[in-house]
Amino acid sequence: MLVCDVCGQALSSETAVRRHLRRTHLGRQPRCPLCGVATAPGCEELRRHIEAAHPEPGPPGARRPELAEGLPECPFCGEAAGRELEAHVRARHGHLLGAPGTDTENSEQLYECPMCSLTCTNIQILEEHVDLHLEEHSFSEGGNIRDLELAQRLQTEEDKRQRSEEEKREREEFKKLQRQYGLDNSGGYKQQFLKNMEREVDRGRMQPFEYHKRKADMMECLAFGIDDGKTKTSGIIEALCKYYQNENKDVRRVWLSTGVDHFHSSLGDRGWGCGYRNFQMLLSSLLQNSLYNDCLRDTTLIPSIPKIQSMIEDAWKEGFDPHGASHFNNRLHGSKAWIGACEIYSLLTNLRIKCQIIDFHKPTGPMGTHPRLFEWVLHYYSTDNEGGAKVVCTSKPPIYLQHQGCPSQEMQKLLKQNSDGTSLKLLRRFVGSLKEKQYQIVAVDGVLSLEEKAARCHASQVLTSEKIP
Fold first, then answer.
1. Is position 393 within any domain?
2. What's the number of domains the chain is made of?
3. What are the pLDDT digits (tens) for 151-162?
4. CA-CA distance, 317 to 60, in Å (whole number)?
5. Most-buried pick from 65, 149, 253, 264 (CB within 10 A)?
6. Is 295 a domain residue?
7. Buried b (16+ CB within 10 A) or exposed e, 405-428
8. Domain of residue 329, CATH code
9. What is the pLDDT of residues 317-354, one digit of tens each?
10. pTM of the prediction?
11. What is the residue range of 246's domain?
């Protein structure tokens, strides 16, 4: 606790002391506590008045002038003291009036600054000195406040700048993902096909008449919703069966799916159409199997990519995989969006084709490989053993598994009678060649009743898969 040097009042801090000095003592016009007469500012003038007008009591019987009416306040500390005011002043503030018996006219009264060690001989000088202290403190506090406000404003601006940069990065990354997955509204199969043909003409690789002919053919196929067949290669399974029956080097047994046509990307879907092309291959096999005739009675020809997009949208409208649909904003047609196992599952199930998703969600072998995937595929096809034959042409349709495909030119080489098997390098996959973190397979296994289809549609509200391991 701090104490006022003038009145002795206890105060909590230096700020409180300064406030007390300014409000209570500085600039106050003192009044005589004995008669109420106002004196000139300063304790020295008040002391002289008291010494002259109200000397110490004389001989017995002498009377002091009566105190001013009411309850006069102490001119130094403001305390109400009534008739005891004189005793209060001499007891509490005697050091301001001079010691008894001192020759005040010949001795200088000293005034000490309550805020530093400076001593003044004039109360007005002391007041001006204290004012300087207060002004300095006020300026310092104001400066600190301004510094704090400036620091806060700079920090706010920096936070705003960082948020703006972060939002900009997020927008750029989102646009990049949209471009990568074909969701940037840059057009779909038709736009890309025309653009790439125009580029071929500009480079001299295509004649203008060929451009117009192919454009007319494309527009006709799109109008009917069928694939133009320009990238299709048929007879692949037959060629593989013949090759492995005559090859005896490093193969002990071979299981082949039912017949399937190979489809490769074209000018309209290069870079994003693999999911659709894989579905065309799977569908080409199902169309050759009478088991699926009823399910595919409205799909007798291989649909074009835009048509497949519309078929997936139809499945979403039926209620399949709403979470996946929302990822594409419920729209695929006219985009270059990539699709995967979930979209194919929805499409097939909507056609009442029984299928399942098998999710190899993490590697199961050394060096990030997936031996469990190979084991599953072997088990899927080897259930049709057909005795001990070396080459088994099973009744199983091909599985839907996305990885790097083969160009049509290489597939055509397999159909040649003198094929030496070099083209198989693009078809055959070994354990060490599949090292992605995750693979998903769609496997077809029969047909569904209307009730089973409805049940699977309801279950796809949260689409699940069989996880291995």
1. yes
2. 2
3. 788 888 888 989
4. 119
5. 264
6. yes
7. bbebebbebbeeeeeeeebbeeee
8. 3.90.70.130
9. 999 999 999 989 999 999 999 999 999 999 999 999 99
10. 0.65
11. 234-467
